[in-house]
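Lab manual, section 2.4: Encoding a predicted structure.

Procedure: take the sequence of the chain (470 residues), apply the prediction step described in section 2.3, and record the output as structure tokens. A sample record is shown.
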Amino acid sequence: MNVLFASSEAYPFFTSGKLGDMTGSLARALKRLSIDIRVILPLYKDMKSEWRKRLRYITNFTVPVGWRNQYCGLFELLINGVYYYFLDNEYYFKRSGFYGFYDDGERFAFFSRAILETIRHIDFTPQIIQCNDWQTALTPVFLNLNYREMQKFSHIKTIFTIHSIQYQGKYSPEIAEGVLGIEDENFNLVEYDGLVNYMKGAIETADMISTVSPTYAREILEPWFGCGMDSFLCEREYKLHGILSGIDTDEYNPMKDMIIASQYDASSFKEGKNKCKGQLQRLFDLEQINVPLIGMVTHFVSHKGHDLLISAADDIINKGMQLVILGYGDAVYEQFFKELTARHRGKCSLRIGFLPDIARNVYAGSDMFLMPSRFESCGLAQMLALRYGSIPIVRATGGLRDTVKDGENGFVFSGYNADEMRDACFRAYSLWQNPDEWTALTGRAMECDNSWNIPAKKYAALYRDTLSAI
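Recorded output:
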């Protein structure tokens, strides 16, 4: 089976979070199932020199972007048996960072079209193109409008995977013809609520739709979670599938992780965790005392539940718990956490940035890991916390509901309110005070299988179903 996996990120080359982690680790898992999986990405400026010097140039070609033709260089790299293709255009991608530019709509329209043009220049014909989030959402649209009559494209099927439905790629309708090259008679494919909506185009034209947890697949059919797309998705529920993502358990293994202060497994948990906790307290300038330490590795955006912390954080710290926060994002939340740290020096500490090595120290050194999300499509952080024996405290939504069970491997609260979150933290504190019960809980947490073994097989089954569908 030949699959082309299209994404705007992939570990170890480019990642800003769970999309990049999923792309890299799922590709390797599918390769182990004897699927010929190829990954296609933009060639960003931020690629490390160690990878860039290993790139092999294949060719260059032009890509239609509205009425223009733009240059695209094609490079290839083979890593761990997986071929990665990188699409180069310095005007679009020679910038620091991946997203947040005024012309993102044009940049990723180019990328979506260049994915299809690449197929014309490589000795590989995918049976399936799996597109991920709005950055690749136009690929199924362009395939149906511009390439179906070509022999190499006539039988290709497409799957569109929704990682975060709140980011849909919404733009002024004026870009439809000038940037996308979509004329009036086909404008309905991408139009939604008077705007061009890239994700709507993919949901309309892809053969199958998937998302990254079973619960999230159900939630996005409801107005609270659907971000305006719920009724449209309900009409296409027949092709929607929820497959829980996994983590790379080789990459994230506390017994082999040389970034953390001490390596440990379930049998050597107490000694190893204590060393890692001491290291985390030193990294974040916390008091070196034996109290419960709650960790957070997060993005400072509204749906991550930080407004609950604004109401309850002082109570949690005054209870006798320490809090470390690693993250970045909206200034209003950064300012709140700065003020919280100032009020509770030695008990609460903040580090701003996307810092993967520091994040591992948070997973390994914290006793508990807080994720009070309003919605969470899958969440990988709670799986990493379980892997490192940090007990998740989560709200019952999306992938958090699918992976954390109250009293079995963590603490779960249902309502989106500060009182329930505070109570869950206090319940965790009470159990932490009973060493035998806490040891049993952490043992169950570390035994959880959140690897890609089962999810990869489910993706393989989805591929087969997609190919067999009429």
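Check your result against the sample. The chain has a mean pLDDT of 96.
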